[in-house]
Amino acid sequence: MLIYGVIKVMSLRFETIALVGRPQTAGLESTLSAMAAWLEARRIEVVVEESIASCHRLGAWKAMNFSEIAQIADLVIAVGGDGTLLGAARQIGPQEVPLLGINHGRVGFVTDIPLSQWEAGLQSVLAGNYAIERRGLISASVSRAGQPVWSTLAVNDVVVNRSSRAGMIELEVEVDGEHMATQRADGLIVASPTGSTAYALSANGPILHPRLRGFIMVPIAPQSLSNRPICLPDDVSITIRVVEGREPRVSGDMQVFSDLHIDDDINIKHAPHAMRLVHPKGYSYFGTLRSKLNWHEPPLYETPRR
Asked: Taking the complete model, does pTM exceed 0.70, yes or no?
């Protein structure tokens, strides 16, 4: 049985490091150029993901696609927001190459090192002051008249919803072949513990600690007020069937999409492999929640009027 969410101190040798990022990010080119030169000065082979290799300052380093990176890299450094890291995790897939996130975005639940501290953070990791945490992935596929038409991995969630502005979508949900519910809503989210602090949280879903093995199923603006989120074990097979709705679609991590037809089945289960997150020394899951969700902020009280 695979174990997820358990942090283990490791002492891997990072001899080849791949840099990935979102090409449209302002300032990314200069950051990655400085980072690549810094790593190379420490006798580390540096490669860059091909979508950012066209930046002229990165031309000195070998460009590779994600399939090639997954075969040769000892570590992938994702410079950007959480979405950049999630995209890299999906692309790496079964190879489970360790991932380190440097936050060049807004929130940063899984990108641990602030951009302003990237040099100190990398120095600490290269010195062996880090731990690796395994986070479970979601496998999703769409079948139409019994034939597969689309599939993806997801780190955070799989979302079935309507893409038009009018009307709701009607969905039938089965768990391990047993009918669970028929619901009308704007959509339905199936999230991992990692994704419980993403879209599912904004739809009033619960937060699941990464060591919990399970899914959460969260309706988006349901017609019935009694339709509530539910937690399911991660060894179940979930099938969502589209019964009615205008322009339905399915997405993985809100990054990869497929249009759906009426009577399409979306099949969701736990993936056989995981994302391996590298955390620098001092990482705390609860510390991240306090910081990102402002749990440390004291309540505001109005000054009584006299």
From this structure: yes
